[in-house]
Amino acid sequence: MKKKILIVGGGTAGTMTANNLAKKLMPEIERDEVELVMISDSKNHYYRPGAMYVAFQKAAGHEFIRDQRSLLMPEIDFFVDPAVEINTKANYVKGKSGKKYDYDFLILATGCEVAAERIPGLVEGGDWFYTYEGAKKIAEKFAKIKSGKILVTVNFPKTPNIPHQCGIAPVETTMMLHDYLTERGVRENIEIVYTYPTKAQAVENGLFLQSPTSKVLPSVFDSINVRHQTGFTLAKVDPESKIAYSEEGESISFDILMSTPPFKAAKVIRDSGLSKALDNEGWLPTDKKTLKVIGLKNVYTLGDTVDLPVSKAGGTIHNQTDVVADNIAAELRYGYPTESYDGKVIAVAQMGLTCGMPLWYDYAEDVKPTPCSKLGSFMRLGFNKGLYWAAARGML
Ligand SMILES: Cc1cc2nc3c(=O)[nH]c(=O)nc-3n(C[C@H](O)[C@H](O)[C@H](O)COP(=O)(O)OP(=O)(O)OC[C@H]3O[C@@H](n4cnc5c(N)ncnc54)[C@H](O)[C@@H]3O)c2cc1C
Fold it and tell me: Which of the listed residues 166, 321, 384, 388 should we mutate to test ligand 1's pocket, taking the one with most ligand atoms within 8 A of CB?
């Protein structure tokens, strides 16, 4: 009988995996033994890191959006129909349209979303670059500020050992901010204060979520005159007086608050009952090797939705997608999964407007910081401008 594979979410993880599956299972698709269906809540595909460049006036935003259908191989059926219910007992997902999409294998790839409302006053008093709307708003403020203080804060999920979206982004944007204000000729009148919470995954009282990078950051920030401080876990913001308060009992005033806000999984995942994450954050319990949702034999997940200790990043998904696609293909062909994820993350961090730092790590080894370079930046900009779309199509 024909097997149905359903992918929920047309972002980085869903798109790469759907295309990889179409390639791996082409013989079965041609024999009409396998059907691939994707549902998403948008007709558009957003290259999310692009928002960072919008925040510093290096892009308008539209450059990073493509029609989702155009990124998928023709063998994949695509429907814009937001998932509203996941039933893993009866093996179906219900769309907002009322249609039930049944499956033999399910891939949950609905990413995560900003949950700024979880910090009192942050929505009114803070800014963030993690959405295109947020990036446009903060870009206007960055373009106008002539003097004062820009405060950087970082929040982590309440569920232990889980990172916020894109672990390196607060460092990247602090350095981009320094370069951007220097370009504008106002840097010397503006103080930049980078803060980090007391607890950041396995690191305590550091400036980053992994120890080797945390140790080199003070000298990096000192070299560009960025004040840095650990032990500041944002608890609330007073939008009127522009003061940020920490759980540790401190307060810092600001003119602009560039925050990494709390994040949560998509509503359909939070409502599904599949997650045991604290504070209804919704991270899916994920087998760190097979990438199956723990306890469910035919449901896989990857990307920002998982509860793994690796970065919620495209550079993570690039290393997870083949594991999921190979395992499903192997289950169909041999009856058991064959691949194992080792926690690998490979990316190029944008350390300032013209410097790129290749980074890689896995479950066993932390990132080893290396000097950033113009060549690194060239690679990163090349990825932003074109290579990403090839990667999303499963060509890279
Ligand atoms: C500002 C910024 C900078 C970043 N920088 C980097 C970087 O330098 N390097 C790096 O590797 N990564 C970076 N990332 C992280 C990277 O973009 C994400 O990890 C990646 O996009 C996650 O992919 P995903 O498929 O899990 O989620 P997404 O790409 O968010 O896709 C989720 C999809 O699910 C859909 N969806 C949601 N709810 C439903 C529903 N109910 N029904 C159906 N569909 C639904 C959404 O519409 C979306 O299409 C950055 C992210 C941001 C925001």
Answer: 166
Q: How confident is the model at residue 274 (pLDDT cuts 50, 70, 90)?
A: very high
pLDDT at 1 over 90: no
Among the listed residues 158, 152, 169, the one whose alpha carbon sits nearest the alpha carbon of residue 118 = 158
| pLDDT tens for each residue of 329-345 | 999 999 999 999 999 99
Is residue 135 a contact partner of residue 54, using CB atoms and an 8 Å limit? yes
Q: Are 180 and 56 in contact (CB under 8 A)?
A: yes
The Cα–Cα gap between 37 and 27 comes to 17
Q: What mean pLDDT comes out for the span 346-366?
A: 94
| Block residue for tokens 């599904």 | 272
Instruction: Locate the ligand 1 atom nearest the alpha carbon of residue 84 and give its number.
Output: 41
Q: Can you tell me the distance from the alpha carbon of 19 to that of 29, in angstroms, rounded to the nearest whole number?
A: 13
Share of the chain above pLDDT 90, in %: 98
Computed over every residue of the chain, the mean pLDDT equals 97
Query: Residue 283 Cα, ligand 1 centroid: separation in angstroms?
Result: 14
Question: pLDDT tens digit string along 284-312?
Answer: 999 999 999 999 999 999 999 999 999 99
* Residues 71 and 15 sit within 8 Å (Cβ to Cβ): yes
Distance 76 CA to ligand 1 centre (A): 20
pLDDT in tens, 122-135: 999 999 999 999 99
Task: Name residues contacting ligand 1 (CB within 6 A).
Answer: 8-14, 39-42, 48-49, 51-52, 82-83, 109-111, 129-130, 165-166, 169, 266, 268, 303-305, 312-315, 317, 347
Tell me, in angstroms, the distance from the centre of ligand 1 to residue 232's CA.
27
Q: How far is it, in rounded angstroms, from Cα 83 to Cα 271?
A: 11
pLDDT score of 323: 98
- The neighbouring-strand residues paired with 245 are 236, 251
What structural domains and CATH numbers belong to the chain? 3-111+266-343 (3.50.50.60), 115-259 (3.50.50.60)
CA dihedral (155, 288, 18, 378) in degrees, to 10, reads: 60
Task: State the pLDDT at residue 65.
Answer: 97
